[in-house]
Design goal:
Length: 235
């Protein structure tokens, strides 16, 4: 139903919340922070993030929530029942839930958090010929084949595909995808573009054009007669 990333400090054994996720039929990966978020599930972003406040300090929790805001990821705080009186509302999580968890309530609160952050339950997609980009599920399908992308590759693809014909300099891509405070050079952009092309292009389909000495742009029409991007809801 949902893929979840659980932010929790490692204990001496399996976090009991992971067992609860499994019993509720939810896919779940765990980490002490969001640093390795995109590697957690083969490059696919989760639908929501859970914070185990029983194992996290206040600063860790705030940092995780702020990062979720930047990534536009719904975030739920899991609060121990015996500590609910000390819960700090200034954390401003999208939802909170008491543990031990009740499965039906967990799923309902997940749905509510996702709705608050992403709005309508309809999925938004971009279709460019045989290339389909599901913006809500972070999925990419090429000619019927699912393409695994890292989060940065997905961000690059969405930015370029949403603005066909527009030329982006390497500096602009670096700024918009990695952020102004990123310390890497523009070579990072070239490496990610090369990897992206290797995953979505073949002799019959080319999408990303190199503008020499400038940067890159997405073709206004995919080769082989494909149409330009067509955003819209997917029921």
């Amino acid at each position: 139903m949902y893929n979840i990333f659980l932010v929790a400090n490692p204990g001496n054994g399996l976090n009991p919340l992971l067992r609860e996720m499994d019993r509720a039929g939810l896919g779940c990966h765990e980490g002490p922070d969001l640093t390795h978020l995109e590697e957690a599930a083969a490059g696919q972003m989760p639908e929501a993030v859970l914070l185990d406040l029983a194992s996290l300090g206040p600063m860790q929790a705030r940092q995780a929530i702020n990062r979720c805001r930047e990534l536009k990821l719904p975030v739920l705080a899991v609060v121990p029942r015996d500590a609910v009186g000390s819960y700090d509302p200034t954390f401003n999580a999208d939802e909170f839930i008491l543990s031990p968890l009740e499965h039906g309530e967990l799923v309902a609160r997940l749905k509510q958090a996702v709705y608050r952050v992403r709005g309508s339950l309809g999925r938004e997609v971009l279709r460019i010929g045989d290339l389909v980009i599901d913006l809500d599920r972070y999925d990419v399908v090429m000619a019927g084949r699912r393409v695994p992308l890292t989060y940065k590759e997905f961000q690059l693809l969405v930015l370029l595909a949403s603005n066909p014909g527009r030329v982006y300099t390497r500096e602009a891509l670096l700024s918009q995808v990695w952020g102004y405070d990123y310390l890497g050079g523009t070579r990072t952009v070239d490496v990610h573009i090369r990897r992206l092309r290797s995953k979505i292009e073949d002799p019959d389909h080319t999408f990303v054009e190199t503008i020499w000495n400038v940067g890159y742009r997405f073709k206004t029409a995919a080769s082989g007669g494909g149409k330009g991007p067509q955003p819209g809801p997917l029921a």
